[in-house]
Specification:
CATH topology of the largest domain: Rossmann fold
Helix content: 40-55%
CATH architecture of the largest domain: 3-Layer(aba) Sandwich
Number of domains: 2
Number of helices: 10
Distance between the termini: 39 Å
Strand content: 15-25%
Order of helices and strands: HHEHEEHEEEHHEHEHEEHEH
Largest sheet: 7 strands, mixed
CATH class of the largest domain: Alpha Beta
Length: about 300
């Protein structure tokens, strides 16, 4: 049973209505993850032992050999057996907590944290292992993996404690996570991807290492439609450097072209590497974003 503090923490990140939606989606997330070469949660080693986990309703396309015919005879409803292999994988949630994420209403970091909480909840509710990796102040801090529903309160507390700060080299962070991974699994990267490091190359190496890559591109509404005009001085959130610019129609159009180019490059990466790319605007309903992750969308 959750304590009052744990219950408040969960409600902060995951409302009761949101949790009901996640309960409906979590089986579909597991099924899609297990169907991909890089993201399979079931061991592919011949002779590897596995144990029965639970039944789930039959869906078109399921392997007929997994139907529990005895249960079907009793209930009249076709159900499929699911099994847990000894060599299950870890769902790794890499969260960019650099200072640039501390922007927007709500902030980009707040949205990244809530999305990570949703994916962590679904994985842990399926008794999968989940690991948080927080990137901020130039470093990478990985938490010990949690497993099962009992791990949900602790993971949510860790997520709620994340604060934005400093700069991040996303390429180095991804390489560090891949290097320390015992075996490949689902690798979720939540970021605004406003990073000069060669993170596309690092993500490619993650794919080559067998990881099932999911890119959560968190964007503030203000970044989609900048309203300021005139002579302005901007402070770089990560370096503190001041940049003086004149915002006019030409400057804004140039910015929007660069932003569109960023989105296009992430989309192209996902298509090339059979990864998932979901762009999330800070003001949108997160249920929609989670459904797109589950459906393995390329926005």
């Amino acid at each position: 049973m959750m304590t009052d503090t744990a219950e408040r923490t969960r409600e902060t990140l995951l409302s009761a209505a949101f949790v009901r939606e996640l309960e409906l989606l979590r089986r579909r997330l597991e099924q899609r993850a297990r169907s991909g070469a890089g993201g399979e949660h079931l061991s592919r080693r011949r002779g590897g032992s596995s144990e029965f986990q639970e039944h789930r309703p039959y869906a078109p396309g399921d392997d007929l050999r997994r139907i529990d015919w005895a249960a079907y005879a009793r209930s009249g409803e076709p159900v499929v057996k699911t099994f847990r292999a000894e060599e299950d994988s870890v769902v790794r949630l890499v969260i960019d907590a650099s200072a640039s994420l501390d922007f927007g209403t709500p902030t980009k970091l707040a949205v990244a944290v809530r999305l990570s909480a949703a994916l962590a909840y679904m994985a842990l509710a399926q008794t999968e292992r989940t690991q948080l990796v927080v990137c901020r102040d130039g470093g990478v801090r990985d938490q010990l993996p949690a497993r099962g529903r009992g791990g949900i309160p602790g993971v949510l507390r860790q997520l709620e404690a994340i604060e934005a700060g400093g700069a991040v080299e996303l390429a180095r962070a991804v390489d560090t996570v891949v290097r320390k991974s015992g075996r490949p699994g689902m690798l979720v990267v939540a970021s605004d991807f406003l990073d000069a490091s060669p993170y596309s190359s690092a993500l490619s190496r993650a794919v080559q290492a067998g990881h099932d890559v999911v890119l959560l591109h968190v964007v503030a509404e203000e970044e989609l439609d900048p309203q300021d005009e005139g002579d302005l001085a901007f402070e770089d959130a990560e370096t503190g450097a001041l940049v003086e610019v004149t915002l006019d129609v030409a400057t804004i159009e140039a910015y929007l072209r660069r932003f569109a180019g960023l989105c296009a490059s992430l989309r192209a990466f996902a298509k090339k590497h059979r990864a998932t790319y979901v762009r999330v605007v800070t003001g949108e309903a997160l249920e929609s974003a989670v459904r797109r992750v589950v459906s393995r969308a390329v926005d």
